[in-house]
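Today's session is about reading a structure prediction critically. Students often jump straight to the picture, but the first step is always the sequence itself: look for stretches that repeat, for charged clusters, for runs of hydrophobic residues. Only then move on to the predicted structure, which in these notes is written as discrete structure tokens rather than atom positions. Here is the chain we will use throughout the hour.
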Amino acid sequence: QGQLAESGGGLAQPGGSLTLSCVASDLNLNYYYIAWFRQVPGKEREAVSSISWSGGSKFYADSVKGRFTVSRDNAKNTVYLQMNSLKPEDSAEYFCAGVMGGPSYGGDWRNGAEYHTWGQGTQVTVSS
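Below is the predicted structure for this chain, in token form.
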């Protein structure tokens, strides 16, 4: 079964940048809709961004709009999340999740139940 693996997390200063990568193995990312979620212990998981299989549709949570950019390189089987102007409240475990094709008809990309493949997560800490 295919897997997703996140990398690129770490410690960043407020106002700084990080780029997360989500690399697929044993699955063809060309057919997958990918979303990024984040979670802080004790809080609900938050949908951050998503990108369609072609890259033609992208969505962002209001909390990251204008600061984060999602992109993909299907030739490298990788989806990226470029995070700029980081804030302490961006600190969380970040996960990528995938579903073949896209969310169900009438479904919501922000609903984690739409995705059947998840990575293990990468920690992002924003602190001075």
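Discussion point for the tutorial: The two ends are 40 Å apart (CA to CA).
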